[in-house]
Amino acid sequence: MSRINTNIGALQAQHRLNYNQADLSTRLQRLSTGLKINAGKDAPAGLIASETLRSEIAGITQAVDNSQRANNVINTAEGSLSEVSSLLLEVQSLTNQAANSGALSPQEIAANQLQVDAILNSVNRISNTTQFNGVKLLNGGLDYTLSGVVSADIDIATVNAAKIPDNGAITVAVQVTASAQLGKITYTASGIGGSPTTIEIAGNIGTEQLSFAASAQNSAISFAINQLKESTGVSASVVAGDLEIYSTAYGSTQFVSVKTITGTFTTGKDFGADAAVTINGSAASVEGKVATVRTGDLDITLDLDAAFAQNTATGITSFNITGGGAKFQLGERVERQGQVNIGISSVATTKLGNATVGYLSSLASDGANSLVGGNTIQAQKILDASIKQVAEIRGRLGAFQKNVVETNVNSLNVALENVTAAQSQIRDADFAAETASLTRAQILVQANTSVLAQANASPQNVLSLLG
């Protein structure tokens, strides 16, 4: 070919040189960044998939951090609750010792009372000062707020966990479908017959024998049984002339037993029955008149009023959970299923115990159940309720920590490994392949440069025709 205005060979060499230089630049970029996809043009579909996976990785990583932070919060609360539990056990020991009043002087009981007062102050201090990052944990600030609770229907409402909608509330509907029952035995005669009679009364607390003279009336028998109800768990009353003997508590585990030892009287044993209750349409687990429901959205325990628990005709009530609780974001996405809520009630002495038996604060020197006042049996009941209450809070927090937080961290770490591996497969550069491609591109660029030089020199051959 003897044309010199257009050098087709040089154009072809330039085209291939530009292509190979671009390929060389790509290989150098990938090796310098470690990424196979540095811009959308590198792999549009791959970039979309990679960005989605990167979003998941960011969410999972933060969820792991959130879970570890939640674990720290629970550890802080658990440490303080453990100390409260130890203090209550010390009060238990002091109360037991003070009850031995026949062997203790008034001065010793007063000294015990001083220790109890100091312990109660310590419990209140722990309740008011335990905090994590400025948030009080045990003063009731993380307990749930209720509205519309009808005291004639529900004696005690305890919300352990509830997923409350943002800026919303939860309505809790309660319905009694079968009545709670006491164990009951009826004596239909008007009293003891013509001969003295001895009977044995037994209940869940204990057993006692009672002896009655001939012709004793049912009112006298009822009075005698009621005098011992703290020892037996059995009460009595006269209804339409009949003597009704019944357990003092409701439920299938509660019973009353009457046995005639001598003379003529009724004999028998009867157990109570648990109420049947639905809460928000879910069948509750019921012990006596205490109903509990545990679902993913609601964990609640209700101590129903006795009259309400026996009223299946109009046994319907409702109330609202308007706020409170601690919300932990444990999922990779901010959505309802990724959030876990738990309530932490106050452990102040005015909150430990309940309205039925009394509150721990009443054990102080000026309280109705102080040691110096001598009402140690009632003090024991309050302590039992308080110790159980703290133990239940610790148990719930421990279950939340072990079965929710820790398992969530383990699950998220596995997910993080797999999602990161998938993202790496799409986006990260394969250094072995890229190094080989770099070497090929370098050789081609060098070869193209040499070929271009030769192509540029080709037209010079035309000069030999002019000679």
Walk me through what this model shows.
One of its GO terms (cellular component) is extracellular region. Keywords: Bacterial flagellum, Cell projection, Cilium, Flagellum, Secreted. Belongs to the bacterial flagellin family. The chain is of the alpha+beta class. The chain has a domain at 184-271: Alpha-Beta Plaits (2-Layer Sandwich), CATH 3.30.70. It has helices spanning 8-33, 44-99, 106-129, 218-227, 229-232, 306-309, 376-427, 431-457, 463-466; strands at 131-132, 135-136, 144-147, 154-162, 170-178, 184-187, 197-203, 207-212, 234-239, 242-247, 255-262, 268-271, 276-279, 282-283, 285-287, 290-294, 298-304, 316-324, 326-329, 339-342, 353-354, 358-359. A five-stranded antiparallel sheet has the order 3-18-5-13-14, with no helix packed on it. Strands 4-17-16-15 form a four-stranded antiparallel sheet. A hairpin with a 3-residue loop joins strand 7 and strand 8. Helix 2 packs antiparallel against helix 3. The radius of gyration is 40 Å and the shape is elongated. It starts with 7 loop residues before the first helix and ends with a helix. The relative contact order is 0.17. The mean pLDDT is 91.
